[in-house]
Design goal:
heterodimer, A: alpha/beta, 10 strands, about 35% helix, globular, B: mainly alpha
Chain lengths: ~250, ~325
């Protein structure tokens, strides 16, 4: 299995604080990599550095062997890297279907073709399939802002898949989602991972969710990688136990 | 606005269009001037609604673009160019200047952006006033001709009103197309959540610049019609107060609503005329009316309608749910 994403020695300093301190890892094609660690250990900052939302102070990010460090988020997205957010980030006034069409429209044609072409960019069908897949059918025409927290989380995840991404970085997809919906979400993620051969990196605090979903887990603490391995290995690692329970 | 049935909406639209064509036929000169002014200001306000209402970029410079369009049209038509050519130049010029003015919006937002555009507005006014070799300075440009359209002279008020109305129709169709295209969706994404938009591959830089450029170009179109409407221009109408008036039209009508500018311009242009019978008090009454409206509904007139519709939809939906639930209970 080749590496989709290679991250080498990423550092990010905010003033004198080093939020991410020399993190290196790679993500293999088709795997689901979990990323766990105590609050404030630099998980989200690492995501933002990889995705171009922050410029890393040092280090290199490679996508399919090509250096992509410093590319803007929109450019990376067009290369097939997508993400979800920790906090709700849908477009509240647009309907669920419009949110999904918006999430896919920039992935086809040129900017000019999107001005003269069809108003739905030919995506209504794809959006409806995604709505069905995430069981949001009865909400398709509702403004996204009117959905419950868990439903908006599902929509947020669905939006990340509209462009047919190769690599998706999910930032706490399970946060605030009720248990039955969570089982649904996990099932969907596994299905997309298998059927579309999409690779995932998942930040999550819900251990049960991470351990059952991921093929490998990386543990971070204080900006550094503490451990990396199969879920059962990581769970037994003394350093990990120390980081979570030690203080 | 989905509360009306489609046939009813079409009928209503046709009735309004027919009224706009037929009713003014026996208006006097002044009535036609006011109505033409409404059409022209609606075009400018639609441009600002695109930049501010849809794309969420605050601009206090729309009046300056009306000025740029007006001066382009005045200078060209008094030198023998036909008005359509002047309109094309006005569009191109304000598009390019609007594009450049969009760059600060890539760095600053909200009231900081308002100040940048305000400074631009002042700069444009100073150019209109001081560069007399081009603009005639404080004496302005007079004897601006009205165009011949398909060989017909439009010197009289009624034919020129139809020129303004026709232009408004074309602009309305173009804007309608734009906002329901993927571009319109991308503009709204800029307004609602630029961070998320970027992560979905939306080139926020390019769309922000486009929102400014297209909005400004519509200001230019309005200006290119304003010049032959008044047939005389000087710098005063294009100072900051025009930008503020246009901003008010957009906010009062309902920013981000397609029909907002039509209503907003109607209130800004026509209401002061209707309140004239109150003599010295009309401006005060007008100001109080605007304040009350915005306290009642910060989202403008169409915001009220939108809320009413939403409330009715929710009520209908929960009624349906209640019926479904009681049926299920009966079955059990």
């Amino acid at each position: 299995m080749s590496a989709v994403l290679e991250v080498t020695n990423i550092k990010k300093n905010f003033g004198g604080i080093s939020a991410v301190d020399g993190v290196s890892f790679d993500v293999r094609e088709g795997e689901i990599l979990g990323l766990i660690g105590p609050n404030g250990c630099g998980k989200s900052t690492l995501f933002n550095c990889i995705l171009g939302q922050l410029t890393p102070s040092d280090g290199e990010v490679k996508l399919d062997g090509k250096v992509v460090t410093g590319l803007r988020p929109a450019e990376l997205n067009k290369l097939g890297v997508s993400r979800t957010f920790q906090l709700l980030q849908v477009f509240p006034k647009l309907s669920v279907r419009e949110n999904l069409i918006l999430a896919g429209q920039e992935h086809q044609g040129s900017m000019a073709s999107r001005l003269v072409g069809r108003s739905d960019a030919g995506l209504t069908e794809t959006a409806n399939q995604m709505i069905g897949f995430f069981k949001l059918d009865h909400l398709a025409a509702e403004p996204a802002g009117g959905l419950s927290y868990g439903q908006q989380k599902l929509l947020d995840a669905a939006m990340a898949f509209m462009g047919g991404p190769r690599l998706v970085l999910l930032d706490e997809p399970a946060g605030g989602v009720n248990p039955s919906m969570l089982a649904d979400l996990k099932e969907r993620l596994v299905a997309i991972n298998r059927e579309k051969n999409a690779t995932f990196v998942v930040i999550e605090h819900n251990m049960e969710f991470v351990m059952s979903l991921c093929s490998r887990v990386m543990v971070m603490a204080e900006g550094k990688v503490l451990a990396m391995g199969r879920p059962d290995e990581v769970r037994k690692n003394p350093a990990v136990i120390e980081a979570y329970l030690g203080h | 606005m989905s509360g009306f049935g489609t046939p009813l909406k079409i009928a209503l639209g046709l009735a309004v269009i027919a009224a706009l064509i037929i009713v003014p036929m026996n208006f006097n000169r002044y009535g036609l001037f006011i109505l033409s002014q409404w059409a022209v200001m609606t075009i400018a306000a639609m441009g600002l609604n695109l930049t501010l209402g849809y794309a969420g970029q605050v601009s206090l410079a729309q009046g300056a673009f009306v000025g740029i369009g007006a001066y382009a049209a005045a200078i060209m038509t008094t030198h023998g160019w036909p008005l359509p050519a002047a309109i094309v130049v006005a569009i191109a010029l304000s598009f390019v200047v609007g594009w450049v003015l969009g760059y600060p919006a890539l760095r600053v937002q909200h009231h900081y952006l308002a100040f940048v555009t305000l400074a631009f507005s002042t700069l444009a006014f100073l150019v209109f006033r001081n560069e007399s070799w081009l603009t005639g300075g404080i004496y302005g440009i007079s004897n601006i001709p009205r165009p011949h359209i398909f060989g017909l002279a439009t010197n009289k008020p009624l034919p020129f009103y139809y020129v303004c109305l026709g232009s408004l129709a074309i602009v309305s169709l173009a804007v309608w197309w734009l906002i329901r295209s993927p571009w319109g969706r991308a503009f709204m994404a800029l307004r609602e959540n630029p961070l998320r938009a970027q992560s979905l591959g939306i080139d926020t830089r390019r769309y922000t610049l486009m929102a400014f450029a297209i909005g400004s170009a519509l200001g230019g179109v309005a200006g290119a019609l304003y010049a032959p409407l008044t047939q005389y221009i000087d710098p005063v109408p294009f100072n900051l107060s025009l930008s503020l008036d246009l901003l008010m039209m957009v906010i009062v009508g309902g920013a981000g609503f397609y029909f907002g500018p039509f209503l907003g311009a109607m209130i800004a242009v026509l209401l002061p005329e209707w309140l004239r019978f109150t003599e010295g008090y009309y401006l005060m009454l007008y100001a109080v009316a605007v304040m009350l409206l915005l306290i009642w509904s910060p989202t403008g007139i169409l915001g009220i309608l939108d809320r009413t519709m939403a409330a009715r939809r929710t009520k209908a939906a929960s009624a349906l749910r209640a019926v479904a639930k009681s049926r299920m209970e009966t079955v059990q």
